[in-house]
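Chain X:
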Amino acid sequence: MNSQIKVAIYGGAFNPPHAGHADAMLQASAFAHRILVVPSCRHAFGKVLNDLEERATLLNRIVSEIKGPALIEVDTIERELATQQAGAIYSYDLLTAIANREGLETKQVALVIGEDNVQTLSRFYRSADLIQDFSLVVIQERLGVHSSKIKELLAQGLDFPAEWVAPGLCRADYDIYNPSAMPICA
């Protein structure tokens, strides 16, 4: 565990959350004292999202099943941030808000990203500042599951592999993610 990193932020759409997300949480827990799993309210890349509380409930069920070296919690801070600013909520702003709320130096706060996002980090809002001001925790994609693929299969009336179901969830929890019936995060 990196003793410098007090809090690592694993933000994402989690739309739907799946076994790959759970694995990422477990990997991240080796690098910080505490992991905050933060579901997006208004995604920076414009993804249409199911209700924030609905996703947070599923994430809490997942988190309750993960036994890693760090405390893992779900944090819906983006709902509060959405009342303070218009438009997307960016990683830099999210990490800054959490550092301020927790009373931490910015380098004590890390952004958790998958190895696939390292290539696109330059597209992030204030990417140079993000890299300079905060720590990064890069995790491996070990399961090869993506929310978009789950939704694609559901839309076609097809099932997906059982190993894609996150711990704490069951296959029926994913039925709400049929793209034709998605309420938008308020």
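Chain Y:
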Amino acid sequence: MTALQDLSLDVHPDELLVVLGPTGAGKTTLLRTIAGLEHPDEGTLYRGDQDITRIPPADRNVSLVFQNFSLYPDWTVLENLAFPLKAPGRNLSADEIRSRIDWAADILKITSLLDRPATRLSGGEMQRVAIGRAIVRRPRLFLLDEPLTNLDAKLREALRVELVTLRRELKTPMIFVTHDQMEAMSMGDRVIVLHEGTILQEGTPEEIYTHPVSPTVARQLGYPPINLISATAQ
């Protein structure tokens, strides 16, 4: 089974790129391939002019945030944030580690939670910690895999705004994958519509919404759902 087929895309240095598609479209496989957790059967991945196709995940300098938070439940927030900074090869001093943790906690408004165990956090707090664990590394690229899916509607709306603001503050490119057209239209500088492993259309949210190239793309964007009427041009 082919998860991604003839796929080619660029991520611009200062943008939030949204990949929109239904379950099974290949969104997670795309992120895992960029992160180095999956290896393409063919094709090449570049970071600038550097071929990173076979570079190990730890050396790619990207951060991946999952929808299930992936925190260590018995650790405090501080310990979860410190974990990626203590990985082999990081060689950061204790003062630098604490400085980065305090910086991330301040940005994400979780300073008061640093001594709290992860098991005592709400869903929104856990997602903020998961994002914090990504940004403390100060990577060259953020990858977010449906990070708002498990949150209630009010919290999803608030975090949509916060993530857009965060990306602008960090000035680091971000790829955000979702099945939710509201997230895509409200967050993306550019949107890619992915279906069965193939890119159907890409452009600004306005371009895709006003000029969908096919009924499949239109169905992804319609809210409330669109009506399709069969007709014959004469």
